[in-house]
Structures
1.
Amino acid sequence: MTEKKRVTLKDIARELGISVSTASRALNSYQGISEETIKLVKDYAEKHHYIPNSIAVNFRKNRTMTIGMIVPEVVHYYFSSIISGALHAAKKQGYRVLISQTDEKLENEIRACHNMLAGNVDGILISISNETEEVDHIQDFLDEGKAVVQFDKYSEKLKSPIVTSDDLESAYRAVTHLIEKGYRKIAHINGLANVRNSKDRLAGYHKALKEHGLDFDPNWIPHCKDITEEEGFAFAKQLMESSNPPDAIFCITDSVALGAMNYLKQAKIKVPDEVGVMGFSNWKISEVMNPSLSTVEQHGFEVGKMAAEILLKATQNPNEESTNQFTEIKSDLIIRESTQK
Amino acid sequence: MTEKKRVTLKDIARELGISVSTASRALNSYQGISEETIKLVKDYAEKHHYIPNSIAVNFRKNRTMTIGMIVPEVVHYYFSSIISGALHAAKKQGYRVLISQTDEKLENEIRACHNMLAGNVDGILISISNETEEVDHIQDFLDEGKAVVQFDKYSEKLKSPIVTSDDLESAYRAVTHLIEKGYRKIAHINGLANVRNSKDRLAGYHKALKEHGLDFDPNWIPHCKDITEEEGFAFAKQLMESSNPPDAIFCITDSVALGAMNYLKQAKIKVPDEVGVMGFSNWKISEVMNPSLSTVEQHGFEVGKMAAEILLKATQNPNEESTNQFTEIKSDLIIRESTQK
DNA sequence: TTGAAAGCGGTACCAG
DNA sequence: CTGGTACCGCTTTCAA
């Protein structure tokens, strides 16, 4: 193996008969260096493909220009969009992004945090797992004066900025839309009761019903465990076969809505005429479904971009106390066929 | 801001009245250290939450336990699956993964490579952009004796291991399936002619036709530029309105197939009876389409996992010359309604 | 079994 | 404008 040794500052200094410090200053274009020397050094560096050893620089400056990003899942339209936005913002400011996936397991999340902390990232972006209750592993960052920004699913135990979609408000608008279309008996297939975005969407549902003076049957709010198509199918069946079936179903996610639609199709219940169906997340499938599914676009790219921008700003002002700044990225209601009574 | 200073080895040594080297050895459980000292140091370290400064360790050892991963796009089922597989394999071996996205732009790819190289990653996983022809920016890694593994889209100019899906073979099987189902005039909406997986899928198409002694019209092979639904629609229209319309369309991707299906639906051409449609990639939409789309599942997770495993192995044997080892992950044909004549 | 010290590749302070 | 030097935190060789 060739393994060319890299040219170092010392090499440059030796070859050019100057001191290491002069070489360093010349390359960094400090003031108080003659044009001549600068040119000499820069030319030499270029010619010999000098690449500063960033580990050494990081070591000296005690920062890495790297942020960590911890997400429950990578293969997921919303999360990958968030990642994309964060990568975009980070690149723009010359930061690198280390990504770790927890698979919704607390254990993996803790390991990832330890690893990032030991790895001296300058800050982290994190969306906590469904299992996460205690957050000491994240608090460790704050205790070291490192920036943390939470996105999507967050814990209120941490004093950190938070960036999310406006789940409550957009759920409210989604359900209001159903009401305006004439649906009156609206069910909501929700997620795990203790997960933040489930709670917010449920609250938006309640808010819309209350505002329009609509009642609901407590049986109309089943909770998914894994937010799958299968659960959507099963709960839609359960709802429609109950003694008091709804005339619309607001689903926590498009995949759940897909399952519900499949059940309705099988049961020969017409969508949107007999039952309206509303999804959430605007996955590609929602456009393709038949009838096409009304849903909510959450603009993950913007969430990720904003989260990274806030993090980098905090990273660059290390003397400021971390805040609770709360940012909601406005979602858009996308109206398609499944709610057009 | 609190900004607790981290405990260093020096602190431990001072407090315990031993030398820094002894403390280091005790923590790393070297031979030739008394049990007593080891216990003393380890207890102290634990009690005071000692975290080794990994920048310093990396600096000293001249490695980072970090690999870089450069992909054209993150928000993409196949690529995000590959990322997930790579993260999985890397975590297992204690490596971290830095991710960079090129948006299919050579310029971004070059920047990402420079940045990774300067950042002293131990190796990179890369899928080149559609624009990439010259690969000096990647060759730089090999020249430094750093491991490179290419996946999905690769350049043959680099002497590096390659991991991909078996595009040629699976395209061959997909088209063979169409032939077996009785389709005889099979068109293929291909991608950019110079992109590797387009070429392979096209070759698989040709192989299947040839083997079954079927002719094809040269007009039956249009090339998408962006591989979009819109192109699928437009090319399907062009094909079906031509003087010699096909009776089946093999599409380079599910999204192209979706566009094609939409055109066929609009033109009231029955799928699969009048025209068969075959996709590629097994996106979630293929299952949801009506009729459901036959397609090819490429097992991205396995591709990413394998690529990372090969990279890490190479990283750990830095004295070995890089090889051209070529690994194909076998894809699976998924037969649904759109090809059941 | 332990300690002293060199040094990884830069940065930045202090002198001149 | 330039050189000398200490040092960032840790590993590792050499000597005791």
2.
Amino acid sequence: MLTQAAEDYLKSIYKLQEKGGKVSTGILAEFLDVKPASATGMIKKLKSMNLVSHQRYQGVTLTDAGKAVALEIIRHHRLLELYLNKALGVPWDGVHDEAEKLEHVISEEVEARMDEILGYPTADPHGSPIPDKNGVVPEIQSIPMTDLQNGQSCVVAEVSDNDAALLRHLGSFNLYPGTAFKVIEVAPFDGPFTIDIAGQQAVIGREVAKNIFVNNVEPIDTV
Amino acid sequence: MLTQAAEDYLKSIYKLQEKGGKVSTGILAEFLDVKPASATGMIKKLKSMNLVSHQRYQGVTLTDAGKAVALEIIRHHRLLELYLNKALGVPWDGVHDEAEKLEHVISEEVEARMDEILGYPTADPHGSPIPDKNGVVPEIQSIPMTDLQNGQSCVVAEVSDNDAALLRHLGSFNLYPGTAFKVIEVAPFDGPFTIDIAGQQAVIGREVAKNIFVNNVEPIDTV
DNA sequence: AATTTATTTTAGGCATAACTAAATTATATA
DNA sequence: TATATAATTTAGTTATGCCTAAAATAAATT
């Protein structure tokens, strides 16, 4: 059995690996809010269990076994988030923290039952893909909202899930995955976005927009 | 925040206290499968937190605060057992172990949602009473099955929950809480019970019968 | 009162996981 | 290429938490 800390390291390595191949000790340490020396220690431990490969000064990579564990934890997390939200009515800004604790503890049996009850879903309440039980991650096509230009319409695909206040803010505009909106105006000099959601106007700051990813983007209005 | 071990000690002290007032160090240690010295250590720790009262060589008692914690954990456990069984379809012989892990981790919010969804239940799948959120434990009237005599009919009130194999065995006879049965014969010299459940006969060994508690006991057939 | 039993204290072990400080290695710059 | 800077690793420390064996002490029993 793995410790909770070990599982958290594996999950983090997976996430960081997603965006840029090899994961340096420093980046990993920063992500987990520990000192680099601590990360080195855990990396050595995980390496001795053949969950990561690592050569000094070259960064870590998950082995197949390590990736399987990481995906299992992520699957737990995302299924739990969806289950908590859909079946238990926990608001979407609260599911992350709860899932963070439960993910290390639930059995495969309970996971399978939740999966079935939810109808084998492919995305959690924030739009993040749920790996299937074989570790296959559904592809989600999306671009950052900050890439949008005036007049473009689109649908929310995914939002960052780790900031409850941000989620409450987005919720107040109904900016959930699946919600369509259109860009009315992008203020110059990296300013905020004015958008139209179901006839309602809303102003979304750029820092907030960075946490929103969209798809089904329609081409710019050309008069 | 309390550690999981501390919560387990409090829960154990509560259960042992139920059956006989003060709880000795030795009994507690045996119950938790640790050495007496370990129990003494934890007792000191719990005492420093005002969760138990204790004077050397005199056994432990929960304080009001300690009792509140114990009942909260027990409430978590039993609500989880029922939720896992009813809402997620986990078989009754599997819910105990799963709840044992989850009970230390779920939030009050999730607990409240489960409680509501289950309709504010008062007993878990094994018939054990679920304390309410104020720590009030519903009374369950019952006597040991081993007190029954020939010809008496009754209803299963509660069974021990910690032995999965026993639960599967009872399940094979439909001996769930709420099930009615009648004693056909009690074999002499502390022998097994032959009972009738909905027209089916079953033989229940005495060791098994010790784990079954019944109520609604009808008087003996007097011809 | 002597002996047995139970409890407590003492002293120490082990596992986990973090940290600091110093040494090492890699990378960037002059 | 030499040197400065940055990143990583090593080594040793600290803290938590729970456990144990052995010795000391108290309580119960004969």
3.
Amino acid sequence: MNPSQLSTRERILEYAGDMFGKKGFKSTTIRMIAQEAGVNVAAVNYHFRDKEGLYAEVIEDIFSKGFARFPSLDPKSDPAMSAEDRLKLFIRGTIYRILSPEGWGGLNGKGRLIAREMMEPTSAFTQVIETYIRPHKDRLVAILWEIVGKGARQEDILLSVVSILGQCIYYVYATSIIERVAPEYTPVENNIDKIIDHVFRFSLGGLENIKADKEIA
Amino acid sequence: MNPSQLSTRERILEYAGDMFGKKGFKSTTIRMIAQEAGVNVAAVNYHFRDKEGLYAEVIEDIFSKGFARFPSLDPKSDPAMSAEDRLKLFIRGTIYRILSPEGWGGLNGKGRLIAREMMEPTSAFTQVIETYIRPHKDRLVAILWEIVGKGARQEDILLSVVSILGQCIYYVYATSIIERVAPEYTPVENNIDKIIDHVFRFSLGGLENIKADKEIA
DNA sequence: GCAAAATTCAAACAAATGTTTTAATCATAT
DNA sequence: ATATGATTAAAACATTTGTTTGAATTTTGC
């Protein structure tokens, strides 16, 4: 839909998301948002009460749309599938949600706002953690138990969750550094499928090592 | 040294680092820094010209001290060592620099400021990338070539660099989320050595898989 | 078509904040 | 000891910015 035919409220929500992501909460001024969205400054307070109210709705909006488009449990996955294949789908969904333009668009889009929230959660984020992030993590935990086997230690599972999600999220988080330090590297946005393959292979190898160590011990 | 016997200039540098990390550049006010450091507001402009000048010096100060204390090339490492052992030392140095109290102290210390800069580099960071980060990455690249073998593809090496550094850095970046989503997990700060072991094992397994794929292809 | 409600708008307000000014104080070298 | 320069201090300045106000305009329900 053409932005100009969205309602005032929706236009504010849209531009505020970009702006909060690009500049952070404090550096983003209501006047900037209003100008970008082509609305009056007072419209923000009218529709969202205050700047914090707007921010909270932006966060909720981004997460609900992101997980709706790329659920943590891929609809193509099926209980009969091997745990390895489900891991691949899980990684694919996560990376597409974070990096792709249909998702959060990486560091140049809403992804930047998410990155800020992960580092420094605001009160608006508490709800999001319970609704989206915890179930997401729990699904990964379940997959890893299957791959590593019941005899594994919970600690190793949790550390592996962090290792896998860390790889995925680091691609958003460090895009600008990656591009500066390794200019020979094709921009992240054009490489999503290669990144997915790599993270999957790398993680599967990592899990093999965790499994092997368990059996030795 | 007792903070109260540091020079005005050094006290400002110290408290500004914490404050910029905790609240970000924009939200940190000169008045807050001055109050914490117990100096007059005008002292900041006197010693550092303006807020940006102060910020630039804070960044340079943090990186020079961090890499001096935990160099990317561990002094204990030795060319005769196996590449695997050097990888372990590399990961150890990186994680200690980022997480330990003698280093950047993770998300509760200067680590937070670094995390901000990685996501959104300021002009003060450009210098730091060339001086510290690029050589750091180049050392890891060299180690990985040895482990994976000369026949590997450059692309796989670069992706693996991101996978390994991503795991290390994610522990700073996501500490607060980790603690909220997995309360059963012991706080990151008390777990540094376990994290190092895990990242090393996981990464070695990942690299095995990269190596194996290369040989198949 | 009209009254009531919802929305938009321009202007003003009040607080926060980076910076400058000017005078006072301290340190240092002769 | 004193003069010179470096440092600190309090106050004022200029700008930015979130929010409110009250009138104008548009939309909605009947």
